[in-house]
Design brief:
It is a single chain. By secondary structure, the protein is α/β, with parallel strands linked by helices. The protein folds into two domains: 9-61 and 340-448, Aspartate Aminotransferase, domain 1 (Alpha-Beta Complex); 67-338, Type I PLP-dependent aspartate aminotransferase-like (Major domain) (Aspartate Aminotransferase, domain 2). The protein contains 14 helices and 16 strands. The protein has a seven-stranded mixed β-sheet, with helices on both faces. Bound molecules: 4'-deoxy-4'-aminopyridoxal-5'-phosphate. Residues 56, 113-115, 118, 147-150, 220, 224-225, 253, 255-256, 281 line the site of 4'-deoxy-4'-aminopyridoxal-5'-phosphate.
Amino acid sequence: LQQTEKLSLEEMDRQYVWHHISPYREEGATMIVEKGEGSWITDQNGNRYLDGMSGLWCVNVGYGREELAEAAAEQIKKIAYTPMTNSHEPAIELAAKVNSMLNDDYVMFYSNSGSDANEVAFKIARQYHQQNGDPNRYKVISRYRAYHGSSMGALSATGQALRKYKYEPLSSGFLHVSPPDNYRKPDNVTVEEYNLQKAREIEETINYEQKESIAAVIMEPLITGGGVIMPHEVYAQEVERICERHGVLLIIDEVICGFGRTGKAFGHQQFNIKPDIITMAKGLTSAYLPLSITAVRKDIYEAFKGTEDNQHFRHVNTFGGNPAACAVALKNIEIMERESLFERSEQLGAKLLQGLKELENHPNVGNVRGLGLLAGIEIVEDKETKEPAPNDRVAKLIASCKAKGLIIGRNGDTVAGQNNILTLSPPLSSTDEDIDFILQVLNEVFAENK
Ligand code: PMP
């Protein structure tokens, strides 16, 4: 590189780094993050921010955990890599540990990301049905507004037009139904009845699409990235019954909800269901290293146990299950258990939600909802019509929070005309003072933006 003068970090960033989502930004718009401690991150200019999103909903144990750095370093010194055609102690121990946290017996397939884990789930579902003598089942039903990943299959399952429309055609065989959105339900039905109706939309789709062609339903316990859209508990249970009735596998995407985000080890445990396949990533390592798991229930796995070539699951992922990431995941879960972070998520989450509920007095706050340390604030133009607030209003709230040292998220789908939900997902290790700070900043920001 020919450089006559030394470029600043920011200049180099603008020159060489293609950022996710928005590649070109105005000067000064990109935060160059230098370090983190607990729930707080510090940028290169020494400004501190409370990370109310735990990065991308993932740093569950908070930043700066030396134990996790040591777990990774020790493992790399011992054996840095072996492919998962072999095995190694951290992968074995982690698989047993994760199994002990689930409600049934599962076998763990390792990859690197949430998208990977969902791709594996779709491939296993399709092959499982073939192995069971049911080769025509290939379609996957998911929900509008949900996000399941960025790779072609996971993007096909995603129900947000904004993320998809430039990359079509995507994989075939992916169908969508609308999720229950209790805030916008019709007035003349109860929440339970409305949720049952929404679940039955899945059964209708199964019937109209020719029953024997459906391989799986994929859903999150609650839609996180699409705007914290929470079902009533009857919904998941009804979907489980429908899947059972039609021989369709139920895949639960726990990429965000898993590892304590909702106040239980896994989000689906809120609803007492037993998924056939469970995908997990983010909180598994608190994002200290990349790792994901596709947990497959033992009886589904049995169909792949034959020794014939055509019975093998033909899927290899070079870095999946790498020893350092598995060692970090084990230590991460140990920390969560030692510090009772799932219970903490439940308790602090209740405190956060109670405080946020007071914002519902504001003329633009249509609805506040949440579970554990996961919350959504739906911003509307008009509380009667529930018309979603336009981009500027929502963007201004986020910028005002940032100016006061609080990072919050935003979700929705601009193509669908609904990108109006502020989101919060702070580390499970947050202190009471951290939660007070979040509430104080939000109160100030909403008071200043009436
Ligand atoms: N599923 C859900 C529910 C997610 O939120 C995400 C990521 N935000 C993914 C899958 C994809 O995960 P990754 O970015 O690790 O591929």
